[in-house]
Design goal:
Elements: E1 3-7, E2 10-12, E3 18-25, E4 34-39, E5 46-51, E6 57-59, E7 67-72, E8 77-82, E9 91-98, E10 111-112, E11 118-122
Parallel strand pairs: 2-11
Antiparallel strand pairs: 1-3, 3-8, 4-5, 4-9, 5-6, 7-8, 9-10, 9-11
């Protein structure tokens, strides 16, 4: 069974950058759409980006301009680069795979195989 593990989170100062990783095991991410989301405690999970099965990318307004999603097929990993981090980016970041392989959306209900998340804290 496909399992995803996020990593790369941590404490970063405002204006800094992070690259989050979503590593898969038990199966291949090839041919699957992968999305990144974040969640602040007490709030709904927010979609950020999706990379489609053919590596087309999609970003929500919350992510445009500061976020970049990419895939390394050889490492079976999808990355999320976040630049110019702000305190309001503080959240737990999750990756997941689209239920419908040919689709690529930023709606959490469309996803499965959620990882455990990686915490990002932006603070001085």
């Amino acid at each position: 069974q496909l399992q995803l593990v996020e990593s790369g989170g941590g404490l970063v100062q405002p204006g800094g950058s992070l690259r989050l990783s979503c590593a898969a095991s038990g199966g291949s991410l090839r041919g699957l759409a992968v999305g990144w989301f974040r969640q602040v405690r007490g709030k709904e999970r927010e979609g950020l980006s999706c990379i489609s099965w053919k590596d087309e990318t999609l970003y929500t307004d919350a992510a445009k301009g500061r976020v970049s999603i990419s895939r390394d097929v050889a490492k079976n990993t999808v990355y999320l680069q976040i630049n110019s981090l702000k305190p309001e980016d503080t959240a737990v970041y999750y990756c997941a795979t689209e239920r419908r392989p040919l689709s690529c959306t930023t709606f959490s209900v469309a996803y499965k195989n959620w990882g455990q998340g990686t915490r990002v804290t932006v603070s001085i």
